[in-house]
Design a protein that fits this description.
About 60% of the residues lie in helices and about 0% in strands. By secondary structure, it is mostly helical. It has a single domain (about 5-20, about 105-294), classed as Hypothetical protein af1432 (Orthogonal Bundle). It has a two-stranded antiparallel ribbon with strand order 1-2. Strand 1 (about 270) and strand 2 form a beta hairpin. It is globular and about 55 Å long. It starts with a helix and ends with a helix.
Length: about 290
Amino acid sequence: MNKTEALNTLIEQANRGELVFSTNVATSLKIQKALDDPDCSVDTASKLVLNEPLLSARVVAIANSAVYSRMGNDVNNVRAAITRLGFRTLRSVVASLVVRQLAGSSKDPAIRAMVNKLWEHSAQVAALAQVLARRITKLDPDTAMFAGIVHEVGGFYMLSRAEEFPCLLERDDLTSDLASNDLVPFSDTIIDKESAEAIIGRAVLKNLQMPQPVVDAVEALWYGLRAMPPESLGDTLLLANELASTPSPLDTRTDSESNRYTSEIDFVVGDGTLNSILEESKEEVISLSAALTS
């Protein structure tokens, strides 16, 4: 089976709703569902988070990141961290765990390397989206961070199937058309046809019951349509994706092409510019992205 055939198989399964998730994902989704209950208390949320050691560590780390620690000294327990972050940010942290778990735990070092790089990219996009929403587009920063965390769900899902379909790791035919379904695979450019990423990603987002504004923003990312300066959540996510220093391993552009393009992005915002705001927020972006990947 070649890559085109493997992608078509995954697309057909996605269209039928036959997604394969690890048991860990189901457990984390239960936590997310419990947090959505308006009657969920901080004590209940703390107990749920404490059942997941990795989640517990990440919640405390994010509460102590530069973005959130401006409110006071470091916190050293889950309950205090949740109190500082609030439930909206906590849902984003749980989502980060779900996204990581989508890829499973492959024994193949090549797959693990791609998963780790994809998560590093996602964490940077989430941190940048949070800062861009707060400083530039004046949108809800927690929603922007959430969108950044989940924007590569389709890629994580496909990497979870890479042991079954090793040809998915091949890069030499990424720009070829999927003739049988009239599709094109991963691309950051504007496209007229549905992409494999969009079809599979949309199916995963639907299965995970992601909020519609977040789904709409990810859809905007797939099709590369944004305003400059950014205005919408989709614009914010697209710009964050372009500014991330670690590119997605699924991005078909070369590193030189990506760096050349991002170095030219700048615009006036109030009394400053995008680059000046990013420089002022550099510590916050580094701290938050590091907390998300810890």
